[in-house]
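note to self — DONT lose this again. spent like an hour looking for the file last time. sequence + predicted structure for the chain T wanted, 230 res
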Amino acid sequence: MLGKQVRCILAAVATIMFACLTPANAEDAAATAQKLVKEAEETFKTFTADPNMTWFRDHVQNAKGILIVPSLAKAGFVFGGSGGSGVYLQQDPKTKAWSSPAFYTLGSVSWGLQAGVEVAEVVLMAMTEKGANAMLSTEFKAGADASIAAGPVGAGAQAATADILQFSRSKGVFGGLTLEGSVIAVRDELNNAYYGKSVQPVDILVKRSVSSADASPLIRTISQQVAGTD
């Protein structure tokens, strides 16, 4: 039998996961989506301003797509997990123009000796066609359907090879943050609420049949960084 303390910690883990991954109610889905877009812009600015993210800044123009998760909560005690929502934008291979954002969740469950709570900002860069195509599916597992690796960080960082590169900024008792085995899934309710009709990721990212003025600051921030302008 689990002790009372362990049960309390597991309950806290469940609460965090529920808060991060459950769909927003219909009445506040649009507001949730708008808030997430604004937070994603701030997260991207934070990454590009970080002196340890030199490789990230220098190679973001090579990314076929970028998933920005402003807040990934990770907690556990023996049983653990992480979860958060984010926005994904894709670069047109011909025009180099960035799409409007599509909404996704990122979550995982882990086992093993661990304790504590951590919140991280996470950016995933889809570096290959396989990585970008995986993002167009309803859901996929990082490391299985598309390879994932930690992106180079710090002075003299060496290039890494994977379909998706992971960058994170976090504080907490957990050591490294690994997203191997995490499931990335579409948040249909946020996509539909944000664009005012039923849409799929391909409509947003490839066909670009929908857009929102609300996303203009985020798109502009990414475009300026890629172009090397302020």
